[in-house]
């Protein structure tokens, strides 16, 4: 049953939005609460709705529109490929696919060299899981509680956040380990590695891979200490397990480097990518492996594929996007803007008692709220993520939305991840709207 609030919201929908709500599922939502906004345009870091409201995109939509909303080079490459030939089977190829494969070998860390293309982050993770299993001959995958790896059956099973609970029972052999960081937790980040070491030992050489986001994204922008990821790789290898780094959100300039793994100078055995790979212009996932893993499949079947694996229009977008990052020097730009953003957020946080912590790296920042000044007490629980109704963090985002800005959030954290093309002036504009919106959480604090 719709509440009065929802009825008011529904009454404000235009024809397109009402039709959409009736015929299209809203994702990760109680359908009665869905309230789609019709979007009619985008330019740079802004996008405009059907009522003429123009908003600054401070979260690059779902942390994916890294090139903003007017990357014409990518749009042109897609149109050109669509006209040349929109689709050919994966056993055929195009110059764009070959070149994007080569470019990924160039920009990914170390000797990562051969790529399987799919259409999303979740599929990139599914491929990584399957490759790790086929290569090692083992079946278990260890991941961490504060993580998101996708919505399909394998990737939701290795996901740690509460959304996994609704998909259980999970894929057999999926093990969850403690995280390097938790807001208010007493477990030291490096101590969590001792648990992982012990857990791998106790699993007795049955774990194919340890799968982590090098910098945790949707679960709150958690950056481990510098020595964490290199040590995790050693521990995994000591137990005969591979290291898979899920770079779906952390990659393509987000962390002020090409990839989150670069922040820690680590080359994983398998890397997954999507989102920024095409600047979100086309759905494309990628799973890139080392030469040793690639060589295994010379005489063992690579038993995987999709109709749209390496879809010509999607790889055209990917190639043009990667060339844009390179030719427009967007990685150094992201690093520079990231430092500026970090400083500005610290300044704003100092004025708001409801900010418990600001953390992150590059253009990947989290503002976590507290309901008790000077402490780290979340406004809600993790399970609120799958409950009905709005949380305080939703209300902060809602305030920003009304004032001209899109600001994503998850559980108790505002997720700041603008397009990497953002300028200093645009950061200033966004931070001013955030400053105003944080009054909502200040007012909601316990006395
Ligand atoms: N891995 C990570 C780290 C992600 O952030 C996401 C999406 N938020 C996924 C995987 C799944 O990607 P997709 O939504 O494209 O399936």
CATH structural architecture of the largest domain: 3-Layer(aba) Sandwich
Stated plainly, the CATH topology of the largest domain is called Aspartate Aminotransferase, domain 2
Summed up, the helix count is 15
Q: Low-confidence runs (pLDDT<50, min 5 residues)?
A: none
Q: Give the CATH class of the largest domain.
A: Alpha Beta
Small-molecule components bound: 4'-deoxy-4'-aminopyridoxal-5'-phosphate
Strand elements, count? 15
Mean pLDDT: 96
Question: What would a concise description of this structure say?
Answer:
InterPro entries: Aminotrans_3, Aminotrans_3_PPA_site, PyrdxlP-dep_Trfase, PyrdxlP-dep_Trfase_major, PyrdxlP-dep_Trfase_small. The protein is an alpha/beta fold.
Supply database-style keywords.
Aspartate Aminotransferase, domain 1; binds 4'-deoxy-4'-aminopyridoxal-5'-phosphate; single chain; 4-stranded mixed β-sheet; 38% helix; alpha/beta; Aspartate Aminotransferase, domain 2; 447 residues; 2 domains
